[in-house]
Amino acid sequence: MGTPKTAPRTSYHHGDLRNALMDSAVELARLGGPAAVVLREVARRVGVSATAAYRHFSAADELVDEVKHAALAKLAESIERAVEAVPADGDPGDVAVARLRASAEGYLDFAFNETGLFQTAFCREEMEHPEGTEKGRPFAESAAFQMFSGLLDEVLAAGRMAPQWRDGAEIAGWSMVHGFAVLTTDGPLGRHVPDEAKAFIRQRTIDLLLRGLTATD
Amino acid sequence: MGTPKTAPRTSYHHGDLRNALMDSAVELARLGGPAAVVLREVARRVGVSATAAYRHFSAADELVDEVKHAALAKLAESIERAVEAVPADGDPGDVAVARLRASAEGYLDFAFNETGLFQTAFCREEMEHPEGTEKGRPFAESAAFQMFSGLLDEVLAAGRMAPQWRDGAEIAGWSMVHGFAVLTTDGPLGRHVPDEAKAFIRQRTIDLLLRGLTATD
DNA sequence: CACGGAAGTTGACGCCGTCAACATCGAGGA
DNA sequence: TCCTCGATGTTGACGGCGTCAACTTCCGTG
After folding, report:
1. What is the pLDDT of residue A186?
2. For A135, phi and psi rounded to 5 degrees?
3. Gap from B149 CA to chain A (nearest CA, Å)
4. What range(s) does the HTH tetR-type domain occupy (chains A, B) (predicted)?
């Protein structure tokens, strides 16, 4: 525990402490989720006294919130990567649906491959962010949510979705993917379900979602 | 804080300390979620020294886990109540679908009305429970899950669901309802979405799920 | 070149979970 | 009847946590 990762610095001042603390905190979150982001441990790893962090963060919770938003950004990246990897040729409706599906896959890939960061991204917001700022902003304006919303618009425009089902579809769809991620990572399905079963129900869950969104009744 | 809730006891021994601690812990969880279940505070409220709890729980985490399972049981009750309230007359298919819908409503009612307990029910399992015991048992054998599974069987038997979609439907459906509950209680949708909007997307989410499950292709 | 403020340090406080050692009480055998 | 012994509580202490006040170091600017 608490092994310093960098050689002890030479000068009294660090020079880039804020970033160093963030990097260390993100690493801890990656390995152990939000609970692992412990101020004193973060400082220890950077080789600095615990209270030094207070020159850059108003409280430990603020540091966690920064990590949280970094994790959210990485999640958005994972989704975007998956969506962009879908070949754009072929029937526009098929492409739109494939891209939507890919967004769910990217979401779940991140949840499984970066479980600690995923948990941190959705842990309780500790600080109150002022209304106007980037972090106080409604989740509906976040990068990931906007992307998902755009993908649904594509599906609608391609005629693969009944217009009366468009409204609220972001949240309904998000709920399903997120719920599956939560239940199968830190949740009750995490430990007792073998991996191949998880892979099956993962596809099942996405299939069911797409079926609900694109059914033609 | 720390106001004792009962008159200071008269005898050296409490007599029913384990239950008293549990009640107090459940109350704290109800008000503040899993993080509010603090061993010293629980003991303080019961009017007993902190270490007395160690005669009944091996560690603080064990106490939290007990609360967790109590909360899970209450969730199952809420679902059951909602399902039983559905009138059983009319077309069997309609009844089966209505009961399935009611289970989702009962789930979400609990999440919104008892947010602290809901969060506690799904917080990370702190202790390792031995394989065979009631608490080490797979979630798939829990009361709530079994009930949900039975409701899906009813829908299938009533011919309102294509058989090839039955497999894995518990988890897919559970994911959607759970995801919505998580996102709108402690999650990012909790603070910024007004209540009437929540009510709309709540129905939307359930509708989408039922549509996916019962669509006739 | 002095000097003022930004960026680190030390030491302390109260909170937490936990342990070891001690105190109290009630049930059951001598 | 009394004695004892195990179950159940208590006290005091330890280390770890977040945080504050007071002090120190160093760099950029006038």
Report:
1. 84
2. -85, -20
3. 14
4. 15-75
Which range marks the domain in which residue A6 is found?
1-58
Judge if B29 and B95 occupy the same domain. no
**Could you say which of B37, B58, B79 is where a domain stops?**
B58
**Between the CA of A17 and the C1' of C1, what is the distance in angstroms?**
29
Q: Which of B171, B189, B215 sits opposite A201 (nearest CB)?
A: B171
Picking from B128, B134, B176, B183 by the largest number of A CB atoms within 10 A of its own CB, the best residue to mutate is: B176
What is the sign, positive or negative, of the torsion defined by CA atoms of B114, B128, A114, A183? Answer: negative
* Same-domain pairing of B25 and B118: no
Task: Please answer yes or no on whether A192 and B168 come within 8 Å at the CB atom.
Answer: no
Q: Is A128 found in the same domain as A209?
A: yes
For the domain that residue A207 is a member of, what is the CATH number? Answer: 1.10.357.10
pLDDT tens string A56-104:
999 999 999 999 999 999 999 999 999 999 999 999 999 999 999 999 9
A193 neighbourhood in chain B, CB within 8 Å: 138, 140
